[in-house]
Each structure stands twice: as C-alpha cells, then as structure tokens.
Amino acid sequence: MIEDKNPQRTSISEMGEFGLIDHLTNTFDIKQKSTVKAIGDDAAVLDFKSKQAVVTTDLLVEGVHFDLGYMPLKHLGYKSIIVNLSDVYAMNAKATQVTVSIALSNRFPLEAVEELYQGIKLACDLYKVDLIGGDTTSSDKGLLISVTAIGEINPNDVVYRSGAQSNDLLVVTGDVGGAYLGLQVLEREKQVFQVNPQNQPDLDQYSYIIERQLKPEARKDIPELLKELNVKPTSMIDVSDGLSSEIIHICKQSKVGCNLYEDKIPLDPQTISTCEEFNISSTTVALSGGEDYELLFTISQEDYPKIKANPNLTIIGHMTQESEGMHLVTRANTKIPLQARGWNSFDKQA
Ligand code: ADP
Ligand code: MG
Predict the structure, then answer these.
(1) Segments in the chain below pLDDT 50
(2) What is the CATH number of the domain that holds 235?
(3) How many Cα neighbours within 13 Å face the side chain of 171?
(4) pTM above 0.90, yes or no
(5) Is the CB of 16 under 6 A from ligand 1?
(6) Record-annotated residues binding substrate (predicted)?
C-alpha cells in the first residue's frame, strides 16, 4: 500500500557505523539550555540545576509494535518519539532530550534509515527536544527502536499516578478510541491490497483516525495549560492502553474507586461512524483501544471552575472510596465493573 518512493538503495555496510551515525545526526541542533553535551562523546552531559529530571524508555519491535506494511518509516520515527514524550508529559514535566537506539537487519538500506530519522527530526523540532545520543547495531531480523526521553520539572509540580482522592473529578484530554479504529481500517485495507495490489484504497473518510494511528501527537500543551490555569492534578497518566486500564492504574495506585460515565466519553464523529461500520461499540473501543496518547488526570473539585469551559478537557467521572470499586455507569444507568484489557487482548467481537 505504501509506495516505494525511494528506489535508491545504498548499503549501510559501505558507510561504517560512525559514518552512519554522523550522517543521520548531523542535521540535529541543540535547543535546550539543559543540554551541555549531546552526541559525540562517550556520554551526553545534562544540567538541570534545581529541577528534577524525569526519564522514561520504550522499546518498539517490528512485527510486535509496528508493521512496516502500512507504517511508513518516517511515521514510525515520529511515533517512536511521541510515545515517549507522552510519558514525560504524563508526569506534568517538560520534555527536553531523547536518545534513540536502533538495531537494523541488512534488509534496510541507508535510504530507509534516513526516512526513519526524518520522522525523528520532525518530532524533535516540533516538540523542541534535543537528540543527545543513542546506539546503533545490527539485528538478525527486523528493526528495533528504543527511545529514552528525558524531561525536567520543578520538584513541587511532579504528578504521580498515586495521588487521586475520593471525590476528585476524572478528566481526559481530546478524544479517545480513534487510533485503535485507524489500525483496524489499515489492517483491513492491507488485506484487500494483498488480494489485489491494483486496488488503491480510498481512505479519505478515515483521515482523522488513520492519522491518530500513524501520526499521533503527545499532549505537550497540557502541562503548560494546567500551569496557566493554576491547576495541579492530583494524579495523571497517559492513555496508551485504553481508558479502562489507565483508570484502573490510577485507582489501584491511589487506593480509590471510580465512576466513569459512558455518555461523557469524548469521541470524534469519525470514531463513531467507523464503529458503526465495523459494528463495534464505541465505548468498548474507547475503554480498550489504546494508543490515543491523551492525558487522563484527576483534580480536586475545588479546581472545577478553572477547567470547566476548556474545550481540550472533558470531565468523564469522579473518584470514590476504594470499597465502592471501579465502574462504568452506562447510558441506561447501570453499573458495570471496569476491566483492564489492553489492545493486545482486545476482542473485536466485544
Ligand atoms: P560508544 O562506542 O561509546 O557506544 P558510539 O560509537 O555507539 O559510542 O556512539 C557515538 C556517539 O553517537 C555517541 O554520542 C552516541 O550516543 C551517538 N549515537 C550512536 N548511535 C546513535 C543513534 N542511532 N542515534 C543518535 N545518536 C547515536
Ligand atoms: Mg555504541
């Protein structure tokens, strides 16, 4: 489905490891004051002065986390940065640096790795983070990418998963469920394409949800917005595995219960219409779909007036005593226990 726009194939082994690293990284510039030394020595050097540093890592494996059959390498590079920045923002921190490590099989020519790094650079530029290092090695089979993201934060501003209190409001940014449905559309089109390669799909009506899957964004704006509004969440997490499992993480770590209201869950119109087409419940998709990279947080009721009119934020429930349990309150006003089902075990028939 993705056309090979780059027919040239330069063998990486001709360049050598150092030539490759230099070729890939020499266009990256340094934007953060805290970056003292980036690429080029045995280690990078950072100086956060009186701030705390937050550090998070993700490993992405071809065939497990991504499929190059429909994921262009540029998008993959972009997304590999985004998923890590999302974890930094979920601590209420500012993302400042990343390291990128790759293992490549010999089926990848230089042009493929260049594309990957174009996506990485785009994300670094847009999110104003410095690429400060990494590692480059070969793999027997496939592509592995490991990204570590680093951020800075005033010690008083850090938000953990564990601070939610009974009666706090539960808030989510943006809308949820779209990325999972985008993946369903891409997988369906890939199968159609395998049967008939002449069949170029018309994906216009799915543009938003496909973008949510292939080119997600992290909520850099939310820690900034919360600061402006003078709101410090009591707990926060990013939505990578679906609302349900993230709510359960907050509840378990904070020792509280929760009522989540089905009719409050924010959905894009394209998510709703595609759910109808696939004959799946949009609530199930929102609860178990994942990869939305929105932020889910709790705030004290006192802060409600500060956030209530904000179009980025939707109140979807409230926290309760732990003994009351974790529930979805349906449109029909029945209570269903929340279950943790990440997208790996997601049942399409549900
Ligand atoms: P070492 O032998 O000490 O591991 P390398 O030769 O692997 O050093 O790396 C040289 C420099 O290039 C280091 O600053 C390292 O962090 C950086 N680097 C290596 N691979 C990558 C990569 N894939 N992306 C970005 N920087 C990299
Ligand atoms: Mg190395």
Answers:
(1) 1-3, 342-350
(2) 3.90.650.10
(3) 29
(4) yes
(5) no
(6) 65, 291, 343
